[in-house]
Design brief:
- This protein has ten helices and twelve strands.
- It is an alpha/beta fold.
- The strands form four sheets. Strands 2-1-3-4-5-10 form a six-stranded parallel sheet, sandwiched between helices. Strands 6-9 form a two-stranded parallel ribbon.
- α2 crosses α4, α4 packs parallel to α5 and α6 packs across α10.
- About 45% of the residues are buried.
């Protein structure tokens, strides 16, 4: 990559994408050479829209962040849409990128692609050793097919596509919509509303025993940027912080940081999702020098602060 190349960043106006765009600009890339397709103009599930996008902006690099994505409840409600939308976007984009002589394609996968009972920490070589956790399998498998396509196109066409596997992201600007948010924004919102409405208890899905790993959004953007610049191999690469926290520990930490003293109840009729998540991040460090820098509690405080300030302004 060089700083004068034309770059398409799908999802570039979103939570992760906006940070990635800033990362490129801060590193001296020309913002006029970065194109962010918007859904109202280009439906990336449709071949003709993607063809038109490349006609209007003949990019040399594509970074595919756009996705239909949400938390456990959203995955349970819309498994078909999640499978179809993400599979179509990835497949059509990679094919049209190849036909338009794109020099590099960066595909963003998901930790949900890993088998349900993967040995911790998750190593990239274990990606095919079982079926994903059922509640997010349609989403995880649709994204995983981008890895299959990337490797097949590299073999047949010499197409330079790479595949990254980020864990759950969090940070200021996250999606706090209760219908589609992931666990950290969902819990922050739940505690905020309990405090606001003077409720002496909250209810959290599952048993609290499941564990998760979280990556601060700015760190994720840095990892993608470094991979786009430096990594050109077929093997998938984990992007994470190499930490692990149970959902019970997480809600207790959020309650402490938000000074909430109420009781935490568990709705065990709701699913836990994947039992554990924690990545081996050694390949990312070895191949392109990425290591997450933000302390989890510090990042969590910033996320809470951003959300509370925004909500208080709307009162």
């Amino acid at each position: 990559m060089n700083k004068n190349q034309k770059i398409i960043i799908t999802g570039g106006a979103g939570f992760l994408g906006s940070h990635l765009v800033k990362c490129f600009i801060q590193e001296g890339y020309n913002k006029n050479n970065i194109f962010i397709p918007r859904t109202k103009d280009f439906d990336l599930r449709h071949e003709n829209d993607i063809k038109r996008m490349f006609e209007q902006f003949p990019a040399e690099v594509v970074i595919h962040l756009a996705a239909n994505v949400g938390g456990i409840g959203y995955n349970q409600k819309f498994p078909g849409s999640l499978f179809y939308d993400n599979l179509k976007m990835g497949t059509e984009l990679i094919e049209q990128a190849r036909k338009n002589n794109v020099k590099k394609f960066v595909s963003i996968g998901t930790v949900c692609a890993y088998p349900k009972h993967t040995k911790v920490p998750f190593k990239e070589k274990d990606l095919w050793k079982g079926y994903p956790e059922e509640t997010n399998a349609p989403y995880g498998l649709a994204k995983k097919m981008q890895l299959v396509q990337a490797q097949a196109y590299r073999q047949q066409y010499g197409f330079n596509a790479i595949f990254l596997l980020p864990v759950n992201l969090y940070g200021p600007g996250d999606n706090f919509n209760p219908k589609s948010s992931h666990v950290i924004p969902a819990l922050i919102r739940k505690v905020y509303l309990a405090k606001k409405n003077n409720k002496n208890s909250i209810t959290v899905w599952g048993t609290g025993k499941a564990s998760r790993e979280f990556l601060y959004v700015k760190n994720a953007a840095e990892g993608i940027f470094l991979a786009a610049k430096k990594y050109n191999k077929s093997k998938p690469v984990n992007l994470g912080s190499h930490m692990e926290i149970t959902i019970k520990e997480l809600i207790n930490l959020i309650a402490d940081l938000m000074n909430y003293k109420g009781k935490i109840n568990w709705d065990t009729s709701k699913p836990d999702g994947q039992p554990r998540r924690c990545l081996d991040t050694s390949r990312a460090e070895k191949e392109f020098g990425f290591k997450a820098k933000t302390d989890f509690e510090k990042g969590l405080k910033e996320t809470i602060g951003w959300y509370v300030e925004r909500e208080n302004k709307n009162l």
